[in-house]
Amino acid sequence: MCTAAIIAGGVARRFDGRAKGALAFGATSIVERQIAVLREITKTLLIVANDAAPYAGLGVPVINDEISGAGPIGGIYTALVHATADPVVVLACDMPFIHAAFLRHLVSVDQSADVTIPRTANGYEPMCACYSRRCAPHLRRQIDEGVFKIQELLPHVQRYEIGPDEISDYDPDGLLFYNVNTPDDYARALKCMDSDPSTSSYLDATKKYGGNR
Question: What is d(CA 212, CA 42) in angstroms, rounded to the nearest whole number?
Fold first, then answer.
């Protein structure tokens, strides 16, 4: 059993103060899609957010940041502090195309690692990664020292990197880590979903992306 934590943060200024996770995406919202995916790998979920209101009624506990103003690293730290089981799958609230097959691989590929983290050609993906609760003291120390780049944790822990070739088995369309940072990103994600119905199978752990592994 693992814990899954959606890191939702606060309001998004680029979206006129709306919460990114609550943006409509198909028949639901981005975060509702994520919850559906995460429930395929664990029943233990939580959301880390500064404002619980956008996520009320989803059946998932919403936890306030332990350290105000620390950004994503603070969200991960909060998730580790409140998690009830290792490992802790951390997912940013603005990634609509994550699917369960990859997350199962993320959790299972090296259960001895403190951090299991994807590494694409563009760099690490710390907001779609797997952390042991043992990382919490390291993250707290970084925050206290004003070091907010999550990747600075990696030299201090045992890690497993899921490299580009390994990722490609689960992400032939290059959408897995697509994140909605701006209104243009959001429009592109909606267009992608509307123009290519196969992207809906990113929600289905048994179709197309290695679900039987």
Answer: 17
